[in-house]
Each structure stands twice: as structure tokens, then as C-alpha cells.
Design brief:
The protein has 10 helices and 28 strands. It is mainly beta and 756 residues long. The chain folds into 3 domains: 467 residues, Porin (Beta Barrel); 32 residues, no CATH class; 118 residues, OmpA-like domain (60s Ribosomal Protein L30, Chain: A). The relative contact order is 0.09.
Length: 756
């Protein structure tokens, strides 16, 4: 079991090494104003010390390795099937990792080792920098579809032309100068002489993989190039080499140049904008060789095998699988043909950077916040990083910073940096980006292996410099406390605090409730945050209209004197019965809910027609009526009688809507009475028994009702005086289980109402 988890841990470490995101310098350094090596980001930056000296290696070293695609969360995760920690290569993995990757994955490594450096201030405006450093820069480009093949995807035609690798080792000799033009502008530049030690580059013009279920063939061609210590493809024999020969070998013949340019601009006192371009340059390689390579082979696989073939005692034997695959692949080595390398000369650009930042300072530059953007250019590839940072600078000899970075659009990367020195002497600086915060735990017996699950990687820099003139002002000035509040004048933001008043760390009177009135003047000590800005000179909430509700709660801040006794908890005149008339003028305070909207200006019920039936109940609000008929005039007896006789005398056959002739007499009498009383409305409701479907009966009930209406229309009754509805068998008056009951349900009901 221990052996299994050791393998997982090794795989995790390898992928983490390949998963760190690119960064030539630690971005969090941008927010450390006192760090001497900060000028590597922008040559316009000036250290706070008058003089600094950096020692070999320990003076400033930065190392990183990375790519633009991977993080640990994509490579190592918990298997829901076995509940064990597995890698993306495990058979239980989903196998779609490669689909989430960019078209080309860039794997990079970089190291910066300072060999010697120093700087010094000239008067108060200029600053010189000198440094000698060793640089290592390596890049590998891997096409997306190659990962698809690794993870078992069935791809028939795969373009691998983006596959490339390059690496360079060179020494950098730099001389820089920064100058403060005025209170707003500072400019800086740096000239670099580059001496190349080694270079290797392999590129493919085209490489295509065509596959079928039984075999695959690979065809393509490309270029190889070597320079520096490597002559052709052969390393020199260092055994027994004399010192003179060795010195001749490493003599700087591979020369190049580069430059840095930058500026800082302060449009206002506490805001700074910075921009720079760094490492814009080239190396001309003279001691170089190049040649063409050709690939043409048919691939039949690495033999028949299954996952279970390499499982022993429940442990996957990775070593056995790799040994089998390696032995098989040796047979395909002849497919790679390289022409004899010939002497050549070529020039290559080094990796350049564009740096842009903006930061704001508060409390006399003791606190700073800002945004820093870095864009890296390698061949035709671009990577971008955006870092949000904050800094705490209580004094020149101590700076502390924290950051949060977005890399190629992905967040979740924390950084931290610190630089300190105890007065003039040695200043220590340490900084890291992309600090792991979330870990997956792989259990191996009694051992727990933490794996940074969702972390893009770690980029670490450290430095140690001898500084002078960092704290000279602090030594010469005797700090005073003019108002005797316990806070020295340079740090006191409220220098005239009254005696014996409690103050905070910056010398201002305490304001416990945060209402803007200091505690020693505040008579309302627990003012809520909602009342901020609405308190009087003694810290109490203002009540402008004096209704007992403070302004921060008052939705009606202009309450009149008459309304004050009748306000609710929101400072608005109350309306207890909700009729829209406030209690202070409501003469009928118990208006029912259904009568709201039917009251007069003093909250009493309206009765427009004066029939003693209030409008909210009156169905004829403009015609005097009676309570018995809901405020409408009572129906005349002759109308009622005519409607009853007509309703009893209307007959239909089963399933038909034709009125029988025996119904005509009653309907004729009804039509006569309706024409004599035009202010009435006849309601005609059709009904059926339950024989047949609802749809058919619904249609039949309507047709019967319309048959009555149409008959009355022919007799001169206006359409506006008739309303037609059909109810099918929804409203029976008798049981539908008997013939007599069904006959009663086949009917047309007539009712008469008054119409204004």
C-alpha cells in the first residue's frame, strides 16, 4: 500500500512541476517599495535606500516552472468508484482532460540567479543600477490533440505540427539609470549585454498522424538547431581538459543585447500609474549547428495488454508497463532520420514582458492597494497575468504585501511578500506567488500526503542585500507628540486632539459607533450604521419633522403637526382601516376591507344615488333602489311573471336545439314585456342532461340558449338586453339517473335584472 501511494505522490509532484504558471519574477514584488530587486520589474523604480549591494546567489534568486493549461485539480482527484486518489491516467478517469486544454500547451521553465549587483543614489533624483545574472529559459509546445492520443481518444487524423522545444542559457550584464523628473514623472532605462552559453531548438514544419483500428503511420519533417557549448549534437570531452582550453571554450562569443524601458506617473498625490517593457532583445549565436529531421513510420501499438496485466496484489505496477512500452518503442527509433548537422549562424529573440500597474496610497503611504498586469511574449504566444495586491508599509525598513492573481483568465492564486531590515545593514526579502491553499489528502497507512488540489503552482523568490541610508531620517528626527495623545506627530492624522480623549492607532478620537461624532461628544453611543450621516452634533439621530421617528427610518419626513399623533413606525400618517384616508381626518375609522376605494374625503361610505345602499354593495349605484334588490329598482311583477312563464314553456327535443312550436306563445309574451321595459337585462342560461360527452353537451347548451335569444331578437328585443351562457350538465336541477330527471335538466333558465 505504501508503495502505491509513493507512486501517486511522485506523479503528483511531476505534474505540479509542470503545472506552475509562468512568471519570470514574483508579481507580489511589485507592491514592496523597499525591495532593491524591484527594479527588475520596472527600471524607473528606485529603492528607498541610498546604497545597496547584492551578493552572489543569495542576493536575488528566482525560480519557476510552468505551463498555460494544467493545474492539480485536472490531474489528481478522488475516484468516486474506489474512493481513492487517482491520476488522470487511471482507467477510471473520465478521459476528457485534453478537451479542456488550449490548442497548444506551453510548458516553460525559468531561473534567474543574481551573481553580483549594486545600486546607489545620485543627489536626490537619480539612481544607478548594476547587476550580473545567470538566466535559464526553456519552452516546450505540445499540441492539444497529442494529449487526446495519450488519454485514449480515437482520432484518425492528428496535426502535431505545433510540437516544438527550445531552451537557452545566457549571462546578463545590465546597467540601468532612473531619474525623477518632477513630482509626477520618473523615467528609467536599462541596457543589457547578453552572453549566450547554450541554445537548443527543435521545430516541426509539419507532422501528421493518420490512424486506423489496426495501425497508425506518422509522417513529417522539421528543423533542429544547437548553439553554444554544444557543437552539432556532441558535448565536448571535459576529462583532462586544461584550464586554458576550458576558458577558451566558455569565452563569450555568443553575444546579444536587450533593454528595459519604464516610467511612473502620479496624476494626483496618492495615485501612481506605472508601465515598462523588459527583456526586449536578442542573442546572435555563432557557434551553432542546424539540420533537417524526417519522420516516416508505421506504428502497430505496444502490444496487447490490459490494465489487469499490470496489477499485482491490488497495486498497479507502473514500472512494468513503462518497461514494456519502452522495449517496444525502441523498434520504432529508426523512423527518426536526422541529416548531418552543418555549421550555421542565427539570431533568436529572448522572451519579452510588458508590465502595467496602478496603485493608490493612503495614510501617508503606509497602506497601498493596486493592480498589476504582466504580459509575456514568447515567439507568437502570449500569456497574461493580472494581480490584485495590498501593502502595509509602516516604515522604510519593513514592507508587507499580499496578492491575488488571475492567470490566463483563471483566479484562485494567492501570493505574499515581505522585506525587512533592522536599520542600516542587511535587508531580507522573500516573496511567493500562487501559494497552495487547498490540499487533497492521500492516505498511505499512517502517512498523509498533502496534494495542492486546486493550486496553479508556486513561484518563489528570495534575496538578501546590504543597504545603507534606509533609516537615516528616523535617526535624525526626534519624534514629538504635540497633543499628548500617545501617537507621535508623523503618524498622527488628528494632531489637535483635546486632552485626555481616547484615540485610535492613528491619533484620532475614538468613534465606537462610527457615526462621525467622537465618543467624547456622542450622547447616543449606539447609533446604527443605517443612521450614518443623519445624526446631529451630539451624535443622536435627527428627527426633522418631530414625529418621534428618526429620519433614517422615516419614510414620510414632512409630517405635519396635525398628523404627528397619528404616525406609524415608519413615520407616515396611519390609516387603520386601509381606506386611503388617514386616521387624523377619518370620520368613519371602521371601513370594511371590501369598501376600500368607495369612501369620501372623510373616510365614510359613498352612496351616490341616496338609496341607503352603499356604492360598494350597490349594483345600480346611480339609480335609487332597495336593499332587497342590491340597490337596484325592484323588478315589476309583470316582468317576473313573463320570465317564469317563458322559462316553463320552452321545450327542446333530446340532443336538439330547435324550439318546439308550443314554446312560441310564452316567448312572444316575454318579448312584448321586454320591449316595454328596456332598462332590464335578460340572462339566458342553457343546460343539458349528462347523456353524451361534455364537449357535445357544452355546445348543445349554448345552441339552445342562442336559439332563445335569436327568437327574441326576431321579435324586436335588442341584443344589448340579453346575455347568453351555456353550462352543459354542470348545474343539474334533478338526478340524471332517471328519464324524468334528465328531462328536467334539459332546460333553458331565464332571469331578469335591472340595467342602468
Amino acid at each position: 500500500m505504501m508503495k502505491r501511494y509513493n507512486k501517486i505522490f511522485v506523479i503528483a509532484c511531476l505534474f505540479m512541476f509542470a503545472g506552475w504558471v509562468q512568471a519570470q519574477q514574483v508579481n507580489t514584488l511589485y507592491f514592496l517599495e523597499n525591495a532593491p530587486m524591484r527594479h527588475t520589474i520596472n527600471p524607473a523604480f528606485q529603492p528607498v535606500s541610498k546604497v545597496y549591494i547584492t551578493l552572489p546567489a543569495i542576493g536575488y534568486t528566482s525560480f519557476w516552472a510552468g505551463n498555460n493549461a494544467f493545474n492539480m485539480g485536472r490531474l489528481v482527484f478522488n475516484d468516486p468508484i474506489t474512493n481513492q486518489t487517482i491520476t488522470a491516467l487511471h482507467p477510471n478517469a473520465q478521459g476528457n482532460l485534453w478537451k479542456q486544454l488550449p490548442k497548444t500547451t506551453l510548458v516553460n521553465a525559468d531561473a534567474y540567479v543574481n551573481l553580483l549587483g549594486f545600486g546607489f543614489r545620485i543627489k536626490d533624483s537619480g539612481y544607478f543600477h548594476f547587476n550580473l545574472a545567470e538566466r535559464i529559459d526553456a519552452h516546450v509546445g505540445i499540441p492539444n490533440q497529442l494529449f487526446g492520443l495519450v488519454f485514449g481518444e480515437s482520432l484518425t487524423n492528428v496535426d502535431l505540427s505545433a510540437l516544438n522545444v527550445s531552451a537557452s542559457v545566457y549571462t546578463e550584464l545590465a546597467l540601468g539609470y532612473s531619474h525623477i523628473i518632477n513630482d509626477q514623472w520618473t523615467v528609467g532605462g536599462k541596457v543589457k549585454l547578453l552572453s549566450g552559453q547554450a541554445y537548443a531548438d527543435g521545430r516541426l514544419d509539419n507532422l501528421m498522424l493518420h490512424s486506423s483500428p489496426k495501425e497508425a503511420y506518422l509522417r513529417g519533417e522539421g528543423e533542429l538547431a544547437f548553439a553554444g557549448l554544444i557543437n552539432g549534437a556532441t558535448l565536448p570531452d571535459f576529462s583532462g581538459m586544461a584550464v586554458a582550453d576550458y576558458l577558451q571554450l566558455i569565452k563569450p562569443t555568443e553575444l546579444g543585447a536587450a533593454f528595459d524601458l519604464g516610467f511612473t506617473y502620479k496624476p494626483i498625490e496618492n495615485l501612481q500609474i506605472t508601465a515598462s517593457v523588459t527583456d526586449l532583445g536578442f542573442i546572435h549565436w555563432k557557434n551553432a549547428s542546424s539540420g533537417r529531421m524526417y519522420i516516416d513510420t508505421t506504428f502497430n501499438g505496444i502490444g496487447d495488454f490490459t490494465y489487469s496485466d499490470y496489477v499485482q496484489d491490488g497495486v498497479f505496477q507502473l514500472d512494468s508497463l513503462l518497461s514494456h512500452a519502452g522495449n517496444t518503442l525502441v523498434g520504432y527509433a529508426d523512423a527518426l532520420h536526422v541529416e548531418p548537422l552543418v555549421s550555421d549562424k542565427f539570431t533568436r529573440m529572448i522572451t519579452a514582458n510588458l508590465n502595467v500597474g496602478i496603485d493608490a496610497n493612503f495614510w501617508k503611504n503606509r497602506v497601498g492597494v493596486g493592480v498589476y498586469s504582466r504580459t509575456r511574449f514568447y515567439n507568437q504566444h502570449i500569456t497574461e497575468e493580472v494581480t490584485l495586491g495590498a501593502a502595509f508599509r509602516p516604515c522604510n525598513w519593513f514592507n508587507l504585501a499580499a496578492s491575488y492573481s488571475f492567470i490566463n483568465g483563471h483566479g484562485g492564486n494567492l501570493g505574499a511578500a515581505m522585506s525587512f531590515a533592522f536599520y542600516d545593514g542587511i535587508m531580507f526579502t522573500v516573496a511567493a506567488d500562487y501559494i497552495p491553499m487547498i490540499y487533497a489528502k492521500a492516505d498511505a497507512n499512517d502517512m498523509v500526503i498533502p496534494i495542492p488540489y486546486k493550486t496553479s503552482g508556486v513561484n518563489l523568490s528570495f534575496g538578501m542585500a546590504i543597504v545603507a541610508g534606509t533609516n537615516h531620517r528616523d535617526k535624525k528626527v526626534k519624534l514629538r507628540d504635540s497633543d499628548r495623545d500617545g501617537v507621535k506627530d508623523p503618524f498622527d492624522l488628528c494632531p489637535n486632539t483635546p486632552r485626555r480623549v481616547k484615540v485610535d492607532m492613528v491619533g484620532c478620537p475614538l468613534d465606537s459607533d462610527g457615526d462621525g461624532v467622537p465618543d467624547y461628544m456622542d450622547k447616543c453611543e449606539a447609533t446604527p450604521a443605517a443612521a450614518y450621516g443623519m445624526v446631529d452634533s451630539v451624535g443622536c439621530p435627527v428627527d426633522t419633522d418631530m414625529d418621534g421617528v428618526p429620519d433614517y427610518l422615516d419614510l414620510c419626513p414632512e409630517t405635519t403637526e396635525e398628523e404627528r399623533p397619528f404616525v406609524n413606525s415608519y413615520g407616515c400618517p396611519s390609516d387603520s382601516d386601509g381606506d386611503g384616508v388617514t386616521d387624523n381626518i377619518d370620520e368613519c375609522p371602521d371601513t370594511p376591507e371590501e369598501a376600500r376605494g368607495y369612501v369620501d374625503s372623510v373616510g365614510c361610505l359613498l352612496d351616490r344615488d341616496g338609496d341607503l345602499v352603499p356604492d360598494y354593495l350597490d349594483q345600480c349605484p346611480d339609480t335609487p333602489g332597495s336593499w332587497k334588490n342590491m340597490g337596484c329598482p325592484e323588478i315589476k311583477q309583470e316582468l317576473t311573471k313573463a320570465v317564469e312563464e317563458a322559462m316553463e314553456g320552452v321545450y327542446f327535443d333530446t340532443g336538439k336545439s330547435t324550439i318546439k312550436k308550443q314554446s312560441y306563445k310564452a316567448l312572444d309574451e316575454l318579448a312584448k314585456v321586454l320591449k316595454q321595459n328596456p332598462n332590464h337585462r335578460l340572462h339566458i342560461h342553457g343546460h343539458t342532461d349528462n347523456v353524451g360527452s361534455y364537449k357535445l353537451n357544452k355546445d348543445l347548451s349554448l345552441r339552445r340558449a342562442y336559439a332563445v335569444r335569436n327568437y327574441l331578437r326576431k321579435k324586436g328585443v335588442a341584443d344589448s338586453s340579453m346575455i347568453v351562457e351555456g353550462f352543459a350538465y354542470n348545474k343539474p336541477v334533478a338526478s340524471n339517473s332517471t328519464a324524468s330527471g334528465r328531462a328536467k335538466n334539459r332546460r333553458v333558465e331565464l332571469t331578469i335584472t335591472y340595467q342602468e
